[in-house]
Task: inverse folding
């Protein structure tokens, strides 16, 4: 079977899994039916290729190819889970492309002198248990199981009641990681290039805003007598937008929980989650501080209180320069750009594993949405680029 047929068949196999009939988006939350089906597909793809499958206590998967010579293992891959109502390409493109790249390398007669693994990390999006890149964090020890097992989803289900957990040795001996991902912006569109290389990840964080007020009657309570947390939240969301625009950074309130959530009642409590990203650690700290100050000022006027809790914060990650330059040169001088999105690659780089990222053009420029897209020709260019990069690492 040709490389093109391999890629397209794998993509057809994954396309219906977890897809919403109404929106066309994907619901592939970890440890639920759609994501478990994708992991079963991964195991079948590994077995069909005669690869050695390894799984850690958290559900992270690696399919190994080649001899373990002690020269340091090379890892590629991505994740299979999605955000709520997400796109098809964010994550799965990297996994499918990794298997297709391995197939292409074999068809070219590549004989690896280092072990190569195709990985699928669990809960990269943090869409169920709220911790981005949770699987890779657990795999490298950046998050402890004692901490992670107490995380709960929106239904109050505790992670420790979903999986047994423990300790992971999955990445022992891994000395290089290369991740392919669909682009989540317009950089390659503007440069008219199908494939590029990332050089850094912006620092970013998720912050929970708990705004407490007083429940009251929507009709009989005068406006001036209210302690309405919704007003505090609304002003805070506007402040976040303004501060991010003024500084050229990113700030988004994309999730909100209102209690008691009644049409004819002033709410007693609003919980909202801020996603903030900036070009440097100092810029992120300044952005978050400015939004928090404006929230507190508004709360003072509304008679409410605001408590801000950082739930997940990642500092700036610069990918390994030597590895980045080696891959960019091998690919003929492709564009090198930063990314504002978080990835498992950033977690592994932070853990001391030299890491590089390839990305494939997204003609819509839209991600975390059913409108996310990629052309087959660009995806195949990504497969070839990944195969070339990996060949240089495992069979120089």
Result:
């Amino acid at each position: 079977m040709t490389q093109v047929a391999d890629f397209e068949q794998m993509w057809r196999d994954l396309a219906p899994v977890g897809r919403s009939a109404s929106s066309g988006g994907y619901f592939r939350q970890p440890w639920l039916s759609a994501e478990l089906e994708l992991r079963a597909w991964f195991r079948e793809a590994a077995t069909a290729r005669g690869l050695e499958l390894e799984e850690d206590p958290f559900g992270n998967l690696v399919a190994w190819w080649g001899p373990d010579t002690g020269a340091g293992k090379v890892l590629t891959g991505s994740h299979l889970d999605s955000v709520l109502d997400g796109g098809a390409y964010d994550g799965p493109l990297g996994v499918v492309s990794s298997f297709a790249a391995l197939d292409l390398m074999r068809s070219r007669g590549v004989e690896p002198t280092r072990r190569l693994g195709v990985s699928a990390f669990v809960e990269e999006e943090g869409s169920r248990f709220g911790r981005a890149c949770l699987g890779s964090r657990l795999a490298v020890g950046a998050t402890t199981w004692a901490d992670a097992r107490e995380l709960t989803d929106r239904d109050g289900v505790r992670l420790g009641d979903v999986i047994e957990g423990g300790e992971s040795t999955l990445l022992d001996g891994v000395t290089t990681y290369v991740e392919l991902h669909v682009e989540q912006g317009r950089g390659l569109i503007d440069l008219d290039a199908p494939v590029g290389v990332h050089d850094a990840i912006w620092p970013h964080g998720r912050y929970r805003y708990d705004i407490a007020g007083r429940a009251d009657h929507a009709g009989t309570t005068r406006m001036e007598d209210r302690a309405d947390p919704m007003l505090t939240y609304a002003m805070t969301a506007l402040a976040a937008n303004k501060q991010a625009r003024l500084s050229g950074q990113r700030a988004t309130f994309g999730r909100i929980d209102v209690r008691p959530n009644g049409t004819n009642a002033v709410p007693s409590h609003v919980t909202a989650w801020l996603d903030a990203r900036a070009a440097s650690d100092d810029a992120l700290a300044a952005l978050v501080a400015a939004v928090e100050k404006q929230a507190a000022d508004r709360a003072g006027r509304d008679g409410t209180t605001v408590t801000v809790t950082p739930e997940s914060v990642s500092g700036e990650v610069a990918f390994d320069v030597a590895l980045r330059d080696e891959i960019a040169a091998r690919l003929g001088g492709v564009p090198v750009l930063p990314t504002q999105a978080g990835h498992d690659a950033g977690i592994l780089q932070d853990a001391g594993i030299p890491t590089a990222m390839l990305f494939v053009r997204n003609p819509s420029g839209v991600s975390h949405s059913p409108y996310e897209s990629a052309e087959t020709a660009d995806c195949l260019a990504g497969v070839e680029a990944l195969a070339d990069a990996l060949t240089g690492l495992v069979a120089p």
About this structure: The domain at 3-202+316-394 is CATH 3.40.630.10 (Aminopeptidase). The longest helix spans residues 281-302.
